[in-house]
Amino acid sequence: MGCCYSYFCDQDSSSQNGEPSERTPLVNPVSNSINNHQINCDDYLIRNANSLPKKTDEQSALNRILQETATDVIDIAALDSHNLQQHEYLDRMKQYSLKLQQACAANKLPQKNNKSILQDIPQPEKVLMTAPLSSSDISLISSIVNKATTAISDIKIEHKEELVASFQIP
Amino acid sequence: MERIPDQLGHLVINEDGAVLMSSGDLENDEKTADIILNLLNLTDEIDPVAFPSGDKFKKLSITYSDHCYIICLSNRKVHVVKKALNNEWPSVLV
Fold first, then answer.
1. Is the ipTM, as predicted for this complex, more than 0.85?
2. In this complex, which of B56, B63, B72 lies closest to A124 when CB atoms are compared?
């Protein structure tokens, strides 16, 4: 709360020294082109009451209101209007991946290993264009798999010795 | 990809399982993409007794009675093509 409040009040001495404190504003309206001069509300009212109701005064009063509003309202969108260019994206991408690699190496994190039964091939079209498995291959595979299934289902355990061995304990 | 004969659809999946390109029967088919990626990542070891050279496979075929999927890996992307089959085989083979 202190940060928000401090923005609308006169800067206290600690924040003027450049030292961040609990009263330092979170967002510094640096890019605000309008003069940052703060006008105390009370001062403004007194000045306005004493002045004569001339047109120029009216104009300056309106200007002052405009100025005050511009000073009090923080335009977040205008603060960061710098758009990233394509090469900046690429630069940042390189920088981040380098940092990531350094961090991984420092913490001895395992690199993402390529856990796949397929190997990387240069021309996928070439492989994908090939004809599907021939019917003779399919029948060969089916018959072998069927034989293997039959063989596995035929596995039996033959009882040879006594499962419980009696030790000669006196 | 479109030049591949008898194709019913195709998919290109990245390493994280996101569908990069798709068409035909496999258009935006994230379920199939997920299943295929899981199938490829089941193991990183191929039986060294059966394949002592330690090579990996170039393609994986999943064959059904009337259609099949042909899967290969290129440039760290998984390419899947679904093809129609003319022969009638009442079996499912991987």
1. no
2. B72
Residue B93 domain-assigned (yes or no):
no
Q: Does B31 touch chain A (CB under 8 A)?
A: no
State whether residue A128 sits within 8 Å of chain B by CB: yes
Residue B91 lies in a domain: no
Only one residue has tokens 């496979």, namely B57
Tell me, yes or no, if A129 comes closer than 8 A to chain B by beta carbon.
Answer: yes
CATH number of the domain to which B54 belongs: 3.30.450.30
What predicted TM-score, i.e. pTM, was given to this entire model? 0.52
* Full domain range(s) for residue B40: 7-84
Q: How many CB pairs under 8 A join A and B?
A: 91
On whether residue B39 sits in a domain, the answer given is yes
> A170 — contact with chain B (CB < 8 Å)?
no
Q: Each residue of A120-159: pLDDT tens digit?
A: 888 888 888 888 888 888 899 999 999 999 999 999 988 8
The total domain count for chain B is 1
